[in-house]
Amino acid sequence: MEHNFYGKWITDGEFAALEPRNVFHKQLDIVDLPCDQHRNRHILFRRIFTIDKKPTEAQVYITADDYYKLYVNGKFVCQGPAPSYHFNYNYNTVDITEYLSEGENTVAVHTLYQGLINRVWQSGDNRHGLLMDIIADGECVLKSDESFKTAVHSGYEEMGVVGYQTQFMERYDSRCREVDFQLPTFDDSYWAYAVEKAAPDYTTAPQKSYMLEFERRDPVKSECLGASKIYDFGSTYVGYIVARVRGKAGDKIILRCGQELLDDGHVRYELRANCVYEEEWILADGESVLDWFDYKSFRYIELILPDAVTVDELYMSVRHYPFTLRSPLSEKYSSDPDLKKIWELCVNTQKYGVQEVIQDCMEREKGFYLGDGCYTALTNMLLTRDDTMVRKLINDAFSTDFITDTLVTCMDCSFMQEIAEYPLMLVLLVLWHYRFTKDVEYLRDNYKKTVKLLEAYRKSYEKNGLLRDLDKWCVVEWPKNFQHGYAVDINEGKICHEAHVSINAYYIEAIKTANKMAMALGEAEYRDITPLYSSFLNTFYNSEKHLFRDGEFTDHISLVGNSFVLAFELYPDNECRDEIINLYREHTVHSLSMFCTFPVLMGLMKCDRDDLILEALKDDGAWLRTLREDGTTTFEGWGRDSKWNTSLFHMTMSYAATFMIDGVKPIFI
């Protein structure tokens, strides 16, 4: 049941007068969206209120733009919301009965308006605000309004932006006036009153996914190295450092986080993913407590300590989406120690990698990517038997049709990118989800959206039975050094005029998939693929070599192009199928990467080639290489140097687990 808010959207004086800025556009449109103002604003809210008796049941309904952390009577309660668009903006519902008491109570909220154009949030749009109600024993005992007090947290100073304009590195000052703002005893007499937003354009909706869970992780070991103290948490996680230290006012600690160590034992804080994880902490006199707001992905932290500063406590607050493993490793693999390690690698990546969305990487982008997200979300659903994150991906992806009717690459954010095959991969996920859940009504709703999407592709790009003149990037395989010389100009930022085998294989498979949806719903098929398949064969098939060419203007044949033919069973006969398998065996799985490995494994599963799936899983240059290079989570590629900006916590390759579970094949055929 949706909640009708009593409270109003409130903000501070800076944002009250700002008009929302449109951040949405087609990727190839030239749009100037400077982000030099209204950025990195940590805006606090407080309200003291009284209740006559401790309630037997109390809930808070809360949201904020871009993000919030909620405290009740000095205790941390929750944070959110999951990223969403302003016209369907998530709010959270949380039971706070245990936090309230009879008499006076204090609510404090730390909000962040990041103000950058990136893949994390719909930010940079000049929208900021807080909306909340507390309902106790059926009555509204607190609502957001102009009686709330507000102030900018002055303890956060920008030290640069990392990744793809992803997050700010911070200098945190424990001497600032707003330290302990969440405590009931805090003096907010110098704060201003909040301002109600005039004509806010939000439409709120209850968040349908779960909220984050948090785990305390203590270091497994620590050591001193000169003036540094280095802590190892044993694995790469996502989260926050919590630390209590003692020193003098003005003492400065340098904090360096990383996913690996340098040869000299210090932390490699200049990450391979092009994030420089170096920050500063200015101490107050006596005890200081570090208060990170934004998270990082790291295994190690190095503190460069001034003389006479002592560390009383340090641990990591690890954040992740709720995860319960409900599908075991197949018995046929359970006795093999290497396969067990690969399984554990993938499960660990899924457990600690999924956040409020299915992210691709935890450092450089933090983005909700549609394409690889389909494989990652499917794996998550198969492992947990919980489909909430698949539903979020499907729902949020289709909702981007307000930007373009052929959808965009990253959801719930202000970064505009279009990759041609990603929406077609979404179509496959819709059917996979139905086959797993048997949810007919959800399929019925998504079938209508699927047809609308495919008709948009048909109208904009289909010519003479083939997709061409695509004003979207065709990624095909990534990174480029895994593309096997794919001989079509598919570079980002330009129109791809040439029809090529990969995107057309995806297109035909998406139409075939829509027809299977229609059959499941008892409806007439969406479209006859016969003329499309005829054009596909006539244009790309080399009947002498029994393999498919990359494009209509090249004779080049690649494993990359043929991997999709194998996956989607587009080969004209078994001789062609066997030639593709021979081509694969010549190059092996480690010559492929994120977008071709899954299709190849799926194709081998459809061909009942369990022997080759086993060979792929145990390929010494694939997942075993990641383990050999001390990976505790899957990499962006197989090794640390797979590309120029390798993420060492990238979720895509965790999909190996999909092919290590019994009973998966019916989802694909």
Task: Describe the fold and architecture.
The chain is an alpha+beta fold and 669 residues long. It folds into 3 domains: 10-209, Galactose-binding domain-like (Jelly Rolls, Sandwich); 214-320, Jelly Rolls; 331-668, Glycosyltransferase, CATH 1.50.10.10. Helices cover 26% and strands 24% of the residues. The protein is built from 15 helices and 27 strands. Strands 11, 12, 16, 17, 18, 19, 20, 21, 22 and 23 form a 10-stranded mixed β-sheet that branches. The protein has a 6-stranded antiparallel β-sheet with strand order 5-4-7-2-10-13, with no helix packed on it. Strands 9-8-3-6-15 form a 5-stranded mixed β-sheet, with no helix packed on it. A hairpin with a 2-residue loop joins strand 17 (221-225) and strand 18 (228-247). The longest helix is centred in the last third of the chain and has 22 residues, at 440-461. The radius of gyration is 26 Å and the shape is globular. The two termini are 37 Å apart. The model has no long low-confidence stretch (mean pLDDT 97).
Brief synopsis:
Helices cover 26% and strands 24% of the residues.
Low-confidence stretches: none
Alpha-beta classification: alpha+beta
The number of distinct β-strands equals 27
Shape by Cα distribution? globular
Question: Helical amount among residues, as a percent range?
Answer: 25-40%
Could you tell me the radius of gyration in angstroms? 26 Å
Q: Average pLDDT, to the nearest integer?
A: 97
Strand content: 15-25%
Beginning-to-end CA distance, first to last residue = 37 Å
The DSSP helix count reads: 15
Q: Give me the CATH architecture of the largest domain, please.
A: Alpha/alpha barrel
Q: Give a short account of the largest sheet.
A: 10 strands, mixed
CATH class of the largest domain equals Mainly Alpha
The tally of structural domains comes to 3
**CATH fold-type name of the largest domain:** Glycosyltransferase
